[in-house]
Design a protein that fits this description.
The structure holds two protein chains of two kinds.
Chain A: H1 10-16
Chain B: H1 2-13, H2 15-21, H3 26-40, E1 49-50, H4 51-59, H5 67-76, E2 83-84, H6 86-93, H7 102-113, E3 121-122, H8 123-137, H9 143-157, E4 164-165, H10 167-176, H11 192-195
Antiparallel strand pairs in B: 1-2, 3-4
Helix pairs in contact in B: 5-7, 7-10, 8-9
The chains are: A mainly alpha, B mainly alpha.
């Protein structure tokens, strides 16, 4: 069983952020 | 010989060929060409997107760098010549299309996070990713918390416990957690035809 159930993992953290958001390329 | 090269170049860029090989239809490729023309002429009208033009398009500022935008630029620049040409742009953006297979999105995300391109995502890379995320988000966390997040990440993803994440482990984890790939879809791409002025 997971030892750190209350922590978020790094990929979930980055996946929920706007760090990888490319929509700026499409906005005029 | 020159004639053959020209024909190959035309074929490589041809909207019908690109449509057959990507998730876009020909009309969407024409619309993407308009966007490409705008991005590639922002600083120098040479038909190629430089890194500065990419950053300008993304952030409205050519100096605003980030690890994540650097990695995306590197992956879009599939020929590794420092610029993005139209065919690279279309072929790479296809993975962000809403109808692109999840497995392609997972594979692209793996490459994105495999910063040093070793074929594995290792602890040091996860740490660099977390620190870049914190920097871009203007957040601060203690080193203990960062290390705990790394531990949690490997508990969740590194199923064989060898201390590194391989493509299979990543694919399994992404399949169980599709929200991880949320940023691998750009809703605008489905509306590419309306982007054309």
């Amino acid at each position: 069983s997971p030892k750190s159930p209350n922590l978020i993992n790094a990929f979930q953290l980055i996946g929920m952020s706007s760090c990888l958001d490319l929509s700026g390329l499409f906005e005029k | 010989m020159g004639c053959i090269c020209t024909k190959q170049q035309l074929k490589y860029d041809d909207p019908a060929v690109l449509a057959a090989e990507t998730c876009f239809n020909e009309a969407e490729i024409e619309a993407l060409h308009e966007l490409f023309r705008k991005l590639s002429s922002a600083l120098k009208d040479d038909g190629l997107i430089s890194k500065e033009e990419f950053q300008l398009g993304l952030f409205r500022n050519s100096k605003n760098q980030s690890l994540f935008s650097d990695r995306i630029f590197q992956l879009l620049d599939s020929k590794h010549d420092g610029v993005i040409e139209f065919a690279e742009f279309v072929r790479s953006l296809s993975v962000f299309h809403p109808e692109a297979p999840q497995s392609d999105k997972a594979a692209f995300a793996f490459k994105l996070y495999d910063i040093w391109e070793t074929g594995f995502i290792e602890r040091d890379e996860v740490k660099v990713l977390i620190l870049a995320f914190l920097d871009e988000s203007e957040l601060m966390l203690s080193d203990d918390i960062v290390e705990a997040i790394i531990d949690k990440t490997f508990e969740d993803v590194d199923s064989n416990g060898d201390g590194k994440i391989d493509q299979e482990e990543w694919k399994e984890f992404a399949t169980r957690n599709p929200s991880l790939l949320k940023n691998m879809t750009i809703p605008y791409l489905k509306l590419a035809t309306v982007l054309s002025p």
